[in-house]
Design brief:
binds nicotinamide-adenine-dinucleotide, alpha/beta, binds thymidine-5'-diphosphate, seven-stranded parallel beta sheet, 13 strands, 358 residues, Rossmann fold
Length: 358
């Protein structure tokens, strides 16, 4: 297998995609990276500062649902690896407006699979060195009770329009492997956190509100559990799957870091109190916690069994939750302009609509 690659990254201006491009750019300096991103509300080229002018990087503004655009990229570039991040990714938005999720997550994935099939499975092509990595979520497995873990064999049981659209795309990717022999690999990862995460998601949202001494919305009783993974650990797992994972296989990725939401919110508050001092009132930031109406169909608990990727590819998360949270809060404090740019823009309307309901 050749070492040098030409990688089509979809959604590379988003949270995980940008972290992935940064990791590839620093790890494999001779890999060519083509970033195809529509720049939706979640796409932000500031996430790629320092990379944009690199000779090995090309940005294309485009929609993964646009077959002409996607096929022309396969015609122009000698793409041997696709890392497919592009998606509508926020569960709350999927509840209020599922149509974009169906379009991008299902139709967009189908469009990419078709383009890769046409480009790679033509008569003269050698498919041996190709890899189509579909990046997915543990949410496809549904919701756990107090015990148990998701394994790669857990049946899909998606509960939100987001997770249902991701499950559909996973099924399509699998079908293209079994039916056409497209060299597909799939990863299903737990909740990520770290630099460049859009502030609609729990940790950066709580960071921003707590910093500005605004109320901290915790859904329901705050006891829902997520298995948190530092984003760079996720990106390293994806690289390990590209380089060493088996075609046609799916790999669960998780941090072995189960936390109740309330606990996560308290960690953010305590770190901020420590780093920037208590609020102007003298009270700790935890006092801002406000229990709000629960998310519809709110999955109770996610927990990943990541034994397979550990045993097959020797991957383990490097960052503990405590280290990862400290790094994350430090990053957001050092990059206030990045988050201010977002929260003072069109995101404000979303926030006001979402958090002033009822
Ligand atoms: P994100 O919302 O931060 O970024 C998504 C990116 O995709 C944005 O840059 C956006 O502009 C782009 N995009 C959206 N629609 C597009 C389209 N039609 N064509 C081209 N580009 C488009 O998402 P994220 O959190 O970085 O998640 C990336 C992927 O990882 C998603 O597939 C998500 O399902 C998966 N995932 C996320 C998590 C998590 O905790 N964030 C966990 C597991 C899996
Ligand atoms: P989120 O970051 O949206 O990720 P996901 O829904 O994909 O797990 O939410 C993480 C958890 O935090 C989830 O249980 C919902 C909860 N949550 C709140 O309690 N308040 C909030 O304002 C948000 C955005 C999420």
């Amino acid at each position: 297998m050749k070492n040098k690659r030409t990688v089509l990254v979809t959604g590379g201006a988003g949270f995980i995609g940008a972290n992935f491009i940064r990791l590839v750019h620093s790890t494999y300096k001779d890999w060519r990276i083509i970033n195809l991103d529509k720049l939706t509300y979640a796409g932000n080229l500031n996430n790629l500062n320092g990379i944009i002018t690199s000779d090995t990087y090309r940005f294309v503004k485009g929609d993964i649902c646009d077959s002409t655009c996607v096929e022309s990229l396969f015609a122009e570039e000698d793409i041997d690896t696709v890392v497919h991040f592009a998606a509508e990714s926020h569960v709350d938005r999927s509840i209020t407006g599922p149509a974009d999720f169906i379009q991008t997550n299902i139709v967009g994935t189908f469009t990419l699979l078709e383009a890769a099939k046409k480009a790679w499975l033509g008569a003269k092509e050698n498919v041996g060195n190709k890899c189509f990595l579909h990046v997915s979520t543990d949410e496809v497995y549904g919701s756990l009770g107090e015990t148990g873990f998701f394994t790669e064999k857990t049946p899909f049981d998606p509960r939100s329009p987001y997770s249902a659209s991701k499950a559909s795309s996973d099924h399509l990717a699998n079908a293209y492997f079994h039916t056409y022999g497209l060299p597909v690999k799939i990863t299903n990862c737990s909740n990520n956190y770290g630099p460049y995460q859009f502030p609609e998601k729990l940790i950066p949202l709580i960071f921003n509100n707590a910093l500005h001494e605004k109320s901290l919305p915790v859904y329901g009783d705050g006891l829902n559990v997520r298995d948190w993974l530092y984003v760079q650990d996720h990106c390293e797992a994806i690289l390990a799957v590209i380089v060493g994972g088996k075609t046609g296989h799916c790999y669960n990725i998780g941090g072995n870091n189960e936390k109740q939401n309330l606990n996560v919110v308290e960690v953010v508050c305590d770190l901020l109190d420590k780093k920037v001092g208590p609020m102007s009132s003298g009270k700790p930031r935890k006092s801002l916690i406000t229990f709000v109406e629960d998310r519809l169909g709110h999955d109770r608990r996610y927990a990943i069994d990541a034994t397979k990727i550990g045993e097959h590819l020797n991957w383990q998360p490097k960052m503990t939750f405590e280290q990862g949270m400290e790094k994350t809060i430090d990053w957001y404090l050092a990059n206030r302009a990045w988050i201010d740019n977002i929260v003072n823009g069109e995101y404000q309307n979303y926030y006001d609509t979402m958090y002033t309901r009822g």
